[in-house]
């Protein structure tokens, strides 16, 4: 890797730790911070992933549980806007998983900073993916079930003024999630053309298809499996993967109700209380 001041593998471990602690404090105490790209000159994605990984390790040491992974920046338009040519990923923390009962979930509004929601397709991995050059077909073969999912994206970065390294370090702007009923039948659906409608307080607001997630959700998951493996982390059996937004995000206010409808799946409702 070429040498660059703070944005190389030689970046001082103390800085990695300090920035992970800064993000963790912002998460716990609910305040925003300046973009790391501006305040610290962190622009290298590998350094940002080191910050993210250390932050996750800190939380796990305190009792946090990893339930899977999330994929971001799967839209070509967003990639062009951010000046990148691949997605990014983050870790799903169990403390921000809001179970749906009979298709309805609630999330406490006050724990978030500047939340938005987006509709996605979730994969439940049934076989550990740990070999070179994993393909979308192998992902689908290893998938136990799929489900509609609502991701809550949130940013510790002030006013969402994020660049690539900011969102990677900030756990890919993870806020939380809820997931609908798992469906084995959905494995035989054409995920590329599957449709989605997200309603906001009863009003249909955004519309999307599976192709919005890197052209095909399974392609996005294959990218993730290969990217994780490059860092020595296999995508494991039992992991949940949310595969990328199928439409634009919607800002959230206290009391809002969001309903995700996806072809052949029961509606999934999320209210912020």
TrEMBL record:
Q: Which GO terms describe its molecular function?
A: 2-oxopent-4-enoate hydratase activity; 4-oxalocrotonate decarboxylase activity
What are its E.C. numbers?
4.1.1.77
Residues annotated as domain Fumarylacetoacetase-like C-terminal: 114-268
GO cellular component, as recorded: cytoplasm
Keywords for this protein: Lyase
- Do the record's keywords include Lyase? yes
> Would the keyword Lyase turn up in this protein's UniProt record?
yes
- Name the InterPro entries for this protein: Fumarylacetoacetase-like_C, Fumarylacetoacetase_C_sf, Hydratase-Decarb/MhpD_sf
Q: Which domain of life is it from?
A: Bacteria
Going by the record, the broad EC class of this enzyme is: lyase
- What name appears for this protein in its UniProt entry? 4-oxalocrotonate decarboxylase
Species in which this protein is naturally found: Chloroflexus aurantiacus (strain ATCC 29366 / DSM 635 / J-10-fl)
């Amino acid at each position: 890797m070429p040498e660059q001041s703070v944005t190389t593998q030689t970046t001082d471990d103390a800085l990695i730790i300090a920035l992970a602690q800064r993000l963790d404090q912002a998460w716990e105490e609910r305040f925003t911070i300046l973009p790391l790209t501006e305040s610290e000159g962190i622009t290298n994605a590998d350094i940002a992933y080191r910050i993210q990984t250390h932050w996750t390790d800190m939380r796990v040491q305190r009792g946090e549980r990893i339930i899977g992974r999330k994929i971001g920046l799967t839209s070509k338009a967003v990639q062009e806007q951010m000046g990148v040519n691949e997605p990014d990923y983050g870790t799903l923390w169990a403390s921000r998983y809001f179970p749906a009962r009979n298709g309805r979930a609630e999330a406490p509004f006050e724990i978030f900073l500047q939340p938005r929601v987006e509709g996605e397709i979730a994969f439940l991995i049934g076989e550990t993916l740990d070999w070179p050059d994993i393909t979308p077909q192998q992902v689908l073969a290893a998938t136990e079930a799929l489900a509609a999912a609502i991701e809550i994206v949130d940013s510790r970065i002030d006013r969402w003024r994020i660049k690539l390294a900011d969102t990677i370090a900030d756990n890919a702007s993870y806020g939380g999630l809820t997931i609908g009923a798992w469906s084995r039948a959905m494995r035989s659906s054409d995920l590329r053309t599957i449709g989605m409608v997200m309603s906001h307080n009863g009003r249909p607001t955004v519309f999307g298809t599976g192709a919005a997630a890197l052209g095909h959700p399974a392609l996005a998951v294959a990218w993730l499996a290969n990217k994780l493996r490059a860092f020595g982390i296999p995508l494991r059996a039992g992991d949940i993967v949310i595969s990328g937004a199928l439409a634009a995000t919607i800002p959230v206010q206290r009391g809002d109700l969001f309903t995700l409808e996806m072809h052949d799946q029961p509606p999934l409702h999320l209210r912020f209380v």
